[in-house]
Amino acid sequence: MDVRGTFPGPTIESRRGRPVTVTHRNELPVPTVVHLHGGRTPAASDGYPTDLVLPRGWAAPATPHGSGHGSGHGSGHGSGHGMHDPRAVVTEVTRDYTFPLDQRPTLLWYHDHRMDFTAPAIWRGLAGLHLVRDDAEEALGLPAGPRELPLMIADRAFAADGALAYPALDPALRERPGVREPYLAGALGDVILVNGAPWPVHEVDAARYRLRVLNASNARHYELEAVGDDGRRLDLVQVGADQGLLAAPVTHRLLPIAPAERYDLIVDFSGVPVGGRVRLLNRLGSGRTRDVMAFRVARKAADGSRVPATLSTDLPDWRRSDAVRVRDFAFRTGHLHSGRGWLIGGLPFDPARTDVTARLGDVEVWRLIADVHHPVHLHLVGFRVLSRSGRPPLPHDAGLKDTVSLRPGEAVEIITRFDGYRGRYLFHCHNAEHEDMGMMANLEIT
Question: The pTM is what?
Fold first, then answer.
């Protein structure tokens, strides 16, 4: 299919356990890499940052220039830095990515993961949704068809001529990675897009809807609430997390969502009068960034959907006593080369260095410590949140996740089992500017 100029990219729907091969063709003037976020994917198709798909005739910069803000390292294939990655697998123009999809049904998303330039690539539109379905989930009776709405929420800034405005040090995205000094903590936009449209209004029936929400913003955090014209807040009934269905529904009035997190929500519009409006608001925003989108109730309608008390029985029951080791990782700002960046365990990313080696099948507990907000994402595996600063997890931590929001000064414990595939993977902060400026680390599964 020809999908040039579309944002988001095409939504892909797959069946659990039915492998899919997606061929990506790069007709951009710069390299790309595709990562299926949340996918249980062999390393060769996971979208490692140096596994570049080069444009035809790509000539890498003759003299790499470190930004002083970036990681200082790269593939040697035009990432913007000079360190060669001997394990990089580079192709020209096209690459086939094979996704086994042997995983729980859920909302995944795909995005560019190019070394040092992930943030501007996502900002400019290299992202889309991928839904995994199975028979068991479809038998639950959750809202479906036109009453299931995948919602990709992202903030952006625009120039006077309508072009996307991003504070890149090198707007051509060829040589010098990084952003201008005021944006080192993350790029924020003043326009909220949902599925590419600014502040949309969606017409709905007076019935239950399933909202599959993704925060695809580079750095913006949201705290969502649904509010009617009368000021009454509607329940956000969570039925799923990053990695699929919860064991049982969890009801929220306010729901925080960090970059790359996904929440599967049921909202019931049956109590809203025809002609009434429900606004989805961001309690962390101000001015126009407080508004996300709105729903207008157009008609009464029959509703055969339901929200079962039991949603799934296949969540892993890992216990702390199952863990073969506990690891600590500090996510903090620091100095690298000639400037400031973001570090894991005091080190900036280096594709040639193995930071963590884990054995296939091992259960581990990781303690993640933050200085400021960091949404931490593990490739390949899902995890459960065990605690936050020694206290129980929060209600929105329920279920199996692949991205967890660390709040300033917080220590979060997670537990996971490294299963699936052997090979080289990543864990990193999903504030996209942070990851481009060094906040990634290598995870080797042996």
Answer: 0.95
